[in-house]
Amino acid sequence: MPLPDLLKRLTPTEKVLVDGLISDSLLWMPHPENIPQIRAYVTEADVLYYGGAAGGGKSDLLLGLAVTTHQKSIIFRREFSQLRELVDRSAEILVPTGAKYNQTYSRWMGIPGGRTLEFGAVQHEQFKEKYKGRPHDLVGFDEVGDFTETQFRFLIAWTRSVDPKQRCRIVCTGNPPSYREGEWVIRYWAPWLSDDYSNPAVPGELRYFATVGGKDVEFPDSNPIEHEGEVIRPLSRTFIPASLSDNPFLRNTSYGTVLQSLPEPLRSQLLFGDFSVRRSDTPRQVIPTEWVRAAQRRWRDREPPDAPLTAVGVDPSRGGVDNTEIARLTENYFHELLTYPGETVPDGPACAGNVLEALGEDTDARINVDVIGIGASVFDILASQELEVYAINFSERTNATDQSGELRFHNVRAEAYWRLREALDPTSGEDLALPPSDELLADLVAPLWRVSTRGIQIEAKKDIRKRLKRSPGKGDAVALAYYNPTAGIYFM
Fold this sequence. Notes:
alpha/beta
């Protein structure tokens, strides 16, 4: 049989093995016994999610693709400190070739074949801007569930190459998300990971998606479509599961015993790659997760009310890594939050201008501004415009009580979040509608509470920041918007 015909008959596993035998420049190849890793290496998907359980050889796949099949690669972790193992493993592969690592730019140069490999991190939301306009033909995410959806979609926008022969792709690895704001990966790869998807897919199957009107829409193939005069080509996605038993380097070690000893749901997530297991609420969680989800489902089922704004909550920032967040409430409906990166808000007047723009003609709305820091300047400017604006200092004491009249609050922050909790309670009849945002969900369910000598005390913002790796600004803005400092109810 002619060699070209013979090659066409090879299985993906056989093709990889043949490549390794005939190429003297192949620096890495999937292990012959790790079939999922081989399938991930050869898949034709534009966007791949490889992983699930721990120990399946996920990080090694990213490095292997970068040094064998791509010219210009970048691999992201959420924090730079998390890149250490990837850098060390890449050195094992590349140092013998004479390639040089530039620690200042976190980049390997001189990889055989003229390839480059860069490492990047986006700990805070706006750090993604550092990579704006920088093309790579391989964009990799190690532990993609640690990233926000907005970070992911922004960073993949520059997946391209000037070489028409160079394949471009996005490869994501990871376990089931550890944080609720990472659960967007279940929606993004819904045909494989969501129990609610109407047309489920099998592992490795290609499905085609395009963003139309701001929403992901599935199409039968990759043929271009036209939408409002724009030609859009759907990209293929797939999910290939991996487990510890697939990895011959780890499956006979004690790592499996370590995973078996973990508490649930972490045990099922890491040992079995179970995406259906969601984190259970902690006993001291201020707002139950399902209450927030129910409010977000109501938002999807409603049209925005044709009425003026009732209230606006402002969590200001100035420069730095935090965003200015503005929440707008009409009756019991929260509109989509307005987010302004800190670098675009240099001072109080700029922030006040954002608030005035958010108000539009609804100048009768109540405005609650967090006055700690730059907020004092924002309040002064808005007050000079003869608006109904209130200076909210979350750390101040309050004499209010909860609905029962039995429990006081440690401070205004505790009161504001507890008022929101009471409104989101399904038995309250408030039927609040919240916009479907993973980041907002994470913000609202993050705070914990306890009873102190002064009453209900909410976990400090700095402690929440440590867990979320960012400020819970969206949650604070919503709590501010709902809080009515003049209501006069529940006071003793």
